């Protein structure tokens, strides 16, 4: 595995690093992750939120799925024609399927190189579809040429013409329909990336004007946030209102889908940038720095672009697009398999809990989930019902008299956590991620976790999990010392910054073994 310090934001120093080991004993808030307590949005921000409903269609995902779909169509039509013997049967069915697959691969490569899978092209009108027709013709022609030179059978061009015309008959009308829908979705804002501007004044105005001038701009500016007063940061910049402070920005981004923060401060304001990033990095979204705000130039890979407007990449969201889909697919598949495999264990545990003490079998508790949202998780009840503690105000300790006889065993073996597999199917949890803590959880010293760890809510940038990187390294059980929570936090950050599907599989494989090594669960 890579070192936890491998992925770091652009700005960092020894004491104020967003994403590094946390600081103990700072911050006291529980509302938005900034350490400033619950935040109340002003009327203008609430009004802006009310206009940000609706579903989002990811342009990147849509373009990728369309490419896969068209490749499948090319293959399916070619393979079907071979099956119906419209194409030369002398080559054999396996060779025919191979030729159809080659046509799909070559067609995808040609159409991709011709930029026909870019969003701007997919949205275009029928006059530009000649590129698609030429690309498909080249793909079919290359396959036909290969068979002509490689096959000993008499060559007949008519079947390939049939293949080509069939492709045109399916793909061209489908693209016309897609283009119509894309233009409709674009007008309705369903394909826009939502952005918030951090910092006001002249720099913000220059950025906004630059964004508005970009052809094909897909960014919707939802508002401006700035801690400075109105004299230095006016309430209206380039027609966009200032909706509040940075603390209010974090709360605003918790309540709706925001894709990007664009910071307009100059690089020379390093200390202020550090303070801002320390507040903002807890959010699961992209953070960009307006490149026009400074004179320094970086490597090309440092930038992302909106049209020709450069933005400096500071923080990327941990999971997006295909990564998020792959992780969700693993979660659902593995959770269903685990439920089937462990159903006898869960049934036995449920019976034992019911017979051991009066009360419900399932214990429900509110915990922090993705992006600080509150979710209700399920566990087998391990405490006496009359002594249950849904708010986790008193942590369970060794030889705790509230724990039942069956409860002690299922807590030690983590069998009490198995009902959370259903939370995974509901989408509340992932199989792997930082363990969710109760909303009002405290340490053995009666300290809230946000009082112990500065930036604690940064662990909520991904869905919490049933198991995690910290747990397989022994960091589970009672939090009787602040350093134990700090260590968990460090391991959680390492997981978030270094996530991969293979890392999830590794953690799942190591979880059963880690249960036999730990002595901290009771």
Would you spell out the secondary-structure blueprint of this structure?
Layout: H1 43-50, H2 59-83, H3 93-113, H4 119-122, H5 130-150, H6 158-187, E1 193-198, H7 201-212, E2 219-225, E3 236-237, E4 240-244, H8 246-255, E5 260-263, H9 270-280, E6 286-290, E7 303-306, E8 309-315, H10 322-356, E9 362-368, E10 374-380, H11 405-412, H12 420-426, E11 430-432, H13 449-452, E12 465-467, H14 469-472, H15 482-497, H16 501-517
Parallel strand pairs: 1-2, 1-5, 2-4, 5-6, 11-12
Antiparallel strand pairs: 3-4, 6-8, 7-8, 9-10
Helix pairs in contact: 2-3, 2-6, 3-5, 5-6, 10-11, 10-12
Mean pLDDT: 82
- Sequence of secondary-structure elements: HHHHHHEHEEEHEHEEEHEEHHEHEHHH
Percent in strands: 5-15%
The number of helices is: 16
How many β-strand runs? Answer: 12
- Which percent range fits the helix content? 40-55%
